[in-house]
Give the backbone structure.
Amino acid sequence: MKKDFIFTEIDSLKGVGPQLSKYLKKKKIEKIKDVILNLPYSETDRSKIYKLKELEVGKIQTIKVYVKKLYFPRIRNLPNRIICEDDTGKIEIVYFNSREGYLRKLFPLDEQVIVSGKVNYFNKKYQITNPDYVTTLENQEYVAKNIPKYNLTKGINEKKYRNISEQVINNLPKIDDWLDKNFIKENKLVSWNECIKKLHNSNDVKNNQSSSFRRIVFDELCANFLTLSENRKRIKIKKNSKIFSNKNSELIKKSLPFKLTNDQVRVLDEINVDLSSNKRMFRIIQGDVGSGKTIVSLLSILNVIKSGYQCALMSPTEILAKQHYTLIKKIFKNENFDIEFLTGKTEYKLKKSILANLTSGKIKLLIGTHALFQKKINFKKLGLVVIDEQHKFGVKQRSDLAKKGGDECDVLLMSATPIPRTMMMSLYGDMDISKITEKPAERKKINTLSKPEKKINELWPFVKKQISNNNQVFWVCPLIEESPFLDYSSAKKKFEIINKKFPNKVGLIHGALKNEEKDEILKKFLLNKISILVTTTVIEVGIDFPNANLIIIENANKFGLAQLHQLRGRVGRGDKQGTCILLFKEGLSKNAIKRIKILKESDDGFYIAEEDMRLRGFGDMVGYQQSGVKNFRFADPVVHEKLFLLAEKYIKQMDIDVNEPKYSFLLKLFDKAEIINQNIN
């Protein structure tokens, strides 16, 4: 059997017709490889042979009995019955719509047979209706064993699927292992073929630290890191070095009302080394909320402009882009170069002028939304693209972005979402990573308090005092509207309540609003035209509201730690002390109490993200699904942390040619080949 068998369509298997194929595809089982990777979640134990007196109703059990009588009624629709016994009792084996000749052959009179199926009790008799297995004593081993159980969808018979799985596993071709035999032995793994057979035929799948399960996790991680490594090679192409003097950025540093942290200085140096090198920069700045990533990117932009290039700064929303534009105009007020602002809403006449000046090279820095990468927009000499808040970019998007900028263009991404180490490895392995963990000295720690929701009335005087002092308030609710199924606070209902207490001072924003409506409300809040903003989690990242110093989060126990930290970071961004109040219902679980305690004690986003992952699991963490992390089928960053490190090290050390058949096979197996545009025969 050739390895190509693994990548053939599911309907090439014996017994898989159009109807079954349709149901399997609903379960995303389209090719043979999908059967291989669809591991059982449990098993049915048929290994023990029970006496009839030991049977338990409702359970699948295996019995060894003598066939004593066969009843084949001549009346239509009545079942066929086979009476069997052992030395402890009798049982009926019942069949509907089965041929007499077939049953006589299956149940020879006065002979012993092995029967396995679900036990029922009807008319004071034990019964097994349409048993799963019936065989002779010679074939006892075929039945009396542990049978794997799979997660299946409607329309797929369990026994039929097991036949498909067994057909695939029994015909598994011999694969040239991509791992060295000594490496497998040293790290207590197994060969690929052995791994697959064990996971489908034993309880290894329930043990996420078994040698076979660790092997499939390691393979998945290797495929991931190999993809990132290949992407990195394609991104890190040769370019001309950018020559500049640090004098310009030093002058800007001195004019700032604050001193850069040691982390900011270090990261700026790392970026400058990249800009000065002959290989294109593709770097991400990972920084907690309020760590000062933006100023580092602006100093980098200045150095690139002074070296004779143009720059582009892209933000996810118009209001954040506008905020960057205002800040940059202020910081670069003494610099003699043109800065422009462009969004999808820019009026035609102004847009036409901007495009012309961009093409001629007159504009040195263009700030805006994703509109910056429209086909009609052409730079004369683009040297640096800075992408803000783009933690949701996947591998393919990053690669496409690098291509759009041209060969001479360096790329700098910024993310305010602290990500645990293992996650960062798997998300950004194709990039250079700079971390800013140190907070500016002037940044005050946000006071974090918790309060039962039944005491919400105690908050109104505090809210009133903040408004009286010209401060602003975020009020966060988990739902837009009330739900009959969830006992959570809704933003619309809370807006009505608060608006009655503080008329004409309250705004409402949520994800169901159009972008234009959101921007309008956020502008009003930014200009202090409204004092309280009732919102869902749409304000989690992005815009600075320097006047907001209080955030109240309802049903706080229902949010993840990482998300709560992001929300908390919306306040205390100015010179005022920020306060975060977590409201919760009584009767919290131990886990929820622990999460709230961690948040109250720490303002370190990276530590909080690590704890969040340990408490909730990586699949629940905000933002990671969009990044593709949940594409991990078997790997768990918490459980398999050592394997993450081992796989990353292995790929870095190995000189791997992705065109080599064994590695091509690996990439195709885990659906990575398409990402790196690798054709596999």
In short: The longest strand covers residues 60-71. DSSP finds 23 helices and 22 strands in the chain.
